[in-house]
Amino acid sequence: MLVLKFGGTSVADADAIRRAAAIVGAQRGARVVVVSALAGVTDALLQIGEVACADEHAALRALDGLTARHHDVARAVRHAERRRLLSAGIDGLSRSARGAVAAIRAAGRARPTPASADRLVATGELWSSRLVAALLEDAGIASRWLDPPEIVHTDARYQAATPDLVPTARAVDKLVRPLLASDRVVVIGGFIGSAPDGSTTTLGRGGSDYSAALLGACLSADEIQIWTDVDGILTADPRVIAHARLVERLSYAEAHDLAIFGAKVLHPATIQPAAARNIPVRVLNSRRPDATGTIIGPHTDLDVDPRLTAVACRSGVTLVEVISRDTRGREFFAAKVFHVLAQGGTPVVLADLCGNRLSVAVDDSADFDGFCSGVAAFADVRLRRGLAAVCAVGRGWSAEPRLIRDALAVLGDTPVHMVARPSGSSPLALVVDEAHAESTLTRLHDGFLFEANASRPGDFPLAVNQ
Ligand code: ADP
Ligand code: ASP
Ligand code: MG
Asked: DSSP state, 420?
């Protein structure tokens, strides 16, 4: 049983969808196909939501443009009756999106509420999954489209919803398994879920990977395939470091850490459901389907690369330095700070406790006013904004005491605001000014990872001033 997820560029137009259909058709056995919105459509829909607050007509015009783009793709369907039904389906979804735009305008707010944005933005995956289902059928692959809110049940945290596993697994058993048993390929839009009251939610940007992993876990899939626009997981984001190389194997922990630290190729929540059931996740290039890609699995220490494996960078970070005025001990103080952060729903990227000072790196979007008032009774707070967190993964260096010294040597005079060794799979993380993020990433990558300089513990390749 396979789950195949196709990202936005892998379903960007009729040719891309035909390539995806060929990939699905080349595999045998039960298959679930999870699709993202066509490339750029999610951004466009979010923008339409913003425009709708001030100018409903401009928003509707932009929506018409998106509808036309989907009709263009639909014209590639050869079977006339299927094409007619698809076209009607696209128009039905557009009408409902127009309703969402009208509701945003009528609410009279400066910005759409998260719930109204989710209702509108979900249209992208509904459109694309309809197109993919029709083009699969056209390619002779018996398939069935399913409505994601009927399958993926979540809490009501719009734009960042968390799936509720019990009702989701129940819906998968009831609605997905019988179709797979009757040899249908199931096609479903990723990213989308439904709150307990039935309203539409989304799992956060890039969330189709998460949908695929969730469905894979519910179905105990043999493999979850993430088909995208790069050859797999590379040693760094190729948009930043053009000479980044393919990493053929990664452990779940390494892949998870890379995703948390900004490697956009996987949504950060993707690994957990797969790892919980030991399901391999393979990242593949939909333009080069014969390449092997990256396999992420429960690899043991024995087959781990002795070098650092990859680097990633998470921008938009703020460093919160919390200085205790509490006399009840530093553990008590740290626990209280983490409690306030959790209450505010603020995920911690990195933390370091040193004496009476706790430094935590969090996203710029955190509620700092709420946090400051939450700790005001027992601590002083200093915020340092405009930063980025850079991490390196690879267990090879996890026990190497010289790692931080060597890393700082590679960085030269770059100001570093925090240095941490978060875990075995992520032995090094640094917080630097956003302006230095790319050069930090490049220096770490080329100093520790790049083939020409490939380094091993005890064999540091660069001149280090001791
Ligand atoms: P999709 O639309 O298929 O989900 P995404 O744009 O979400 O694709 O993710 C793929 C992109 O992730 C790549 O084009 C690449 O720029 C970026 N990326 C960031 N870090 C890495 C990495 N370590 N390896 C590969 N790609 C990465
Ligand atoms: N279409 C959504 C986004 O752009 C979800 C995804 O692509 O995974 O964030
Ligand atoms: Mg993605």
From this structure: E
Instruction: State the ligand closest to the CA atom of 234.
Output: 1
SS3 category, 258: helix
Residue closest to 252 by CA, chosen among 227, 273, 238: 273
13 CA distance to ligand 1 centroid (A)?
Answer: 19
Ligand 1 contacts (CB < 6 A) are 7-10, 36, 206, 228-230, 233-234, 236-239, 263-265, 310
List the domain boundaries for the chain: 2-229, 310-449
pLDDT at 465 over 50: no
311 CA closest ligand 1 atom index: 23
pLDDT(454) > 70: no
- Interior angle at CA 50, CA 48 and CA 55, nearest 5: 80
What is the distance between the alpha carbons of residues 451 and 447, in angstroms, rounded to a whole number?
Answer: 10
The pLDDT of residue 314 is above 70: yes
Residue of the CA atom closest to atom 11 of ligand 1: 265
Residue with the nearest Cα to atom 25 of ligand 1? Answer: 233
Write out the two tokens for 399: 């026990």
User: CB of 125 within 8 A of CB of 208?
Assistant: yes
pLDDT confidence of 466, banded at 50, 70, 90? very low
Answer whether 37 contacts ligand 2 (Cβ < 6 A).
yes
Average pLDDT of span 173-196: 98
CB 73 within 8 A of CB 17: yes
Q: How confident is the model at residue 425 (pLDDT cuts 50, 70, 90)?
A: confident
Ligand 1 centre to CA of 263 (Å) is 7
pLDDT digits (tens, 9 = 90+) for 388-420: 999 999 877 777 788 889 999 999 999 999 999
Q: Which fold has domain 310-449?
A: VC0802-like (3.30.2130)
Q: Which ligand is nearest to the CA of 128?
A: 2
**Class of domain 2-229 (CATH, top level):** alpha beta
